[in-house]
Amino acid sequence: MHGIKRTRITPQAAEAKRLKEQGKIEAYLALEQDVLSRKRSKDYTTESLEQTTKLLDLNPEFYTIWNFRRNILLSLFPSLSPEEVVFYLKSDLKLTTSYLLVHPKVYWIWNHRIWCLKSVPTNPDGTKQWKEEFWKGELKLVEKMLDADSRNFHAWDYRRYVLSSLPTQKPLSDELKYTKSKIESNFSNFSAWHCRTKTLLSIWEKEKTSEDKIRKTKDEEFDLVTQALWTDPADQSGWLYHRWLIGSEPPIEVLNREIKNIKDLHEAEPDSKWCMNALAHYTLLSAKYSITSEGDQQKLKEEAKGYYQRLEQVDLDRKERYRDMGKFTSK
Amino acid sequence: MATAGISESAASSSSYLDIPLHIKYIQNLDKRQDLAYHLTSHLRLNGIYWGLTASHIMGQPSALDKEGVIEYVLSCWDGESGTFGPHPGHDGHILATLSGIQIMLMQDAIDRINVESITQFLLERINDDGSVSGDSWGEIDTRFTYICLSSLNLLGKLNQIPLEKKEKIIEHISKCRNLDGGFGRVPGAESHSGQIWVCTAALSILDRQDLIEVPLLASWLSERQLPNGGLNGRPEKLEDVCYSWWCLASISILGKLNWINKDKLINFILGAQDLEDGGIADRPGDWVDVFHTIFGVAGLSLLGYPGLQDIDPVYCMPASLIDKLDIRKPYATLERMTSYP
């Protein structure tokens, strides 16, 4: 039970509640009994299908019933016309939509939906019109789900799945636009930042983007994330993205530019632990470059150590981590 | 903030873990057969595993009727899939399989289950690309990867996975790794503490901890602790007692339990107890359930809370049992305190 406030009730009130529930429990158990016995006897009929709907209405987490439902449909489909199959699948999508609006985090509902989509037949004329139509509708649904809860990981995973399954692929740049709109409406939406990293990586891989072009894109991304960092330096989403952009071997000019930018922010926010964490990590990174003289390397390590020492004081809950990290700096 | 106020007052009013009350709560779980009880029968076997493990960790391994539990597990067998379902009449699934194995091991009754059939079921769940499905319908999730490996190792059958499949599994887990050092459900999915635990533990079981970027991931995990002491599962989300397991067990496997504030987390978990009827909730003031009860107790055990038995962070089972099976992997817990505070 997540997030439901505990209330004290008297034994009398509890008894009254139990009695009131009694009828519901009996009806539920009778229905469950009926459906499970149909399942045992492999009663794959439209009557059984209707009974599964009634049971799933009461309990959409009952995965065994979803399995039974699919077995019924699989058994009915061979004797149906493609139009009829499409009709059944459409009504199951409608059913799962109504469940998802109430239970957006139930795996089994999402699973059933995916099964329906995978089962859409090719049109009798050989075109993929039905498939196109079904998959397109999914993007609309998932956008609605993400508008309701922009961090729902089921919905984000489903979105990636839908995009990769569309019969006619959408350009990846569309996804950059989408994540940007999500980020701009809420810089704290780490799910959107995360999705952006995956989209950019896919684009670079697919288009075999040159180093120069990647660097140019990253510069634009640095601009975007800098806005987020300055808006709320205490929000870790932007910092995680920034660190991803930096990576393990950034061009030294980029690294120095970013260190300078963060130092500016740190000046405005002297207690920001995230500024100091980033500065410590990036400073150590810059000490690794061979063009850095040995004396400078030592200075940079000392600087990083200084940040960790300061962090031990401003972020007490994690002081042992900073102590450990401070020790690494001398290595 | 209202929630912070509640947690502070609740934490100060409960400075110790009320073991007898929680044991009673677990023993009574089957007695309150309200509608919610019947609506959650698909989690029944998991529920017994949660309750039984919590009893073990609280030092009362015989809290539940031994033969009754064994009989129930056996009644969950689904002959068609060749493994356990979560309740009689339900379909077999990998989620129920692990719980069934864990319960039978704790009840010292592993010789009463069909190990060969379960092994077969588990091996058949491993796909060519190294992902693992939950059942024959094919849903994949890194949770299932972990469950498959953990189950096989508990049964002493890990070596039945062909070498090239093992490599594929490792490759698949690596594909689920993200910029923050964490792991997601499937390749491309966002890091989440629950998925991080299963992937970290899975790599441990495969002796491939070298694939984890320890400072990066352990730092991320330590940032899950919020000012009220509780841990969340992802950046900018609410705290929840169950992450006292997912995050904490992960960070314990990485050997960095000292990277969070132990006292604050202990107080947060203690504050989520129901001190009238027993059990632990997701956060102070909410309704309790057995899921949060085990993960609260397990978290306290890792943190060295006095009077508790050791728990193994890789398998979420009593450490003594894992040691007896000789399948222990590296991890570090905090020293058991003699009193608290």
TrEMBL record, chain A:
Lineage top rank: taxon: Eukaryota
GO cellular component, one term: Rab-protein geranylgeranyltransferase complex
Alphabetized UniProt keyword annotations: Prenyltransferase, Repeat, Transferase
GO annotation, biological process: prenylation
Any matching Pfam family: PPTA
Enzyme Commission code(s) on record: 2.5.1.60
The protein's enzyme class: transferase
Entry annotated with the keyword Transcription regulation: no
Membership in a protein family: Belongs to the protein prenyltransferase subunit alpha family.
Stated role: Catalyzes the transfer of a geranyl-geranyl moiety from geranyl-geranyl pyrophosphate to cysteines occuring in specific C-terminal amino acid sequences.
Protein name: Geranylgeranyl transferase type-2 subunit alpha
Organism: Kwoniella dendrophila CBS 6074
Taxonomic lineage: Eukaryota, Fungi, Dikarya, Basidiomycota, Agaricomycotina
TrEMBL record, chain B:
Lineage per the UniProt record: Eukaryota, Fungi, Dikarya, Basidiomycota, Agaricomycotina
One GO cellular component term noted in the UniProt record for this chain: Rab-protein geranylgeranyltransferase complex
GO biological process: protein localization to membrane
Cofactor(s) the protein requires to work: Zn(2+)
Top EC class, one word: transferase
GO molecular function list: metal ion binding; Rab geranylgeranyltransferase activity
InterPro entries noted in UniProt: PGGT1B-like, Prenyltrans, Ptb1, Terpenoid_cyclase/PrenylTrfase
Protein name: Geranylgeranyl transferase type-2 subunit beta
Cofactor note: Binds 1 zinc ion per subunit.
Protein EC: 2.5.1.60
Catalytic reactions of this protein: geranylgeranyl diphosphate + L-cysteinyl-[protein] = S-geranylgeranyl-L-cysteinyl-[protein] + diphosphate
Function statement: Catalyzes the transfer of a geranylgeranyl moiety from geranylgeranyl diphosphate to both cysteines of proteins with the C-terminal sequence -XXCC, -XCXC and -CCXX.
Subunit structure comment from the entry: Heterodimer of an alpha and a beta subunit.
Listed Pfam families: Prenyltrans (PF00432)
Gene3D superfamilies noted in UniProt: 1.50.10.20
Domain Prenyltransferase alpha-alpha toroid: 19-317
Family affiliation: Belongs to the protein prenyltransferase subunit beta family.
Domain of life, source organism: Eukaryota
SUPFAM superfamilies: Terpenoid cyclases/Protein prenyltransferases (SSF48239)
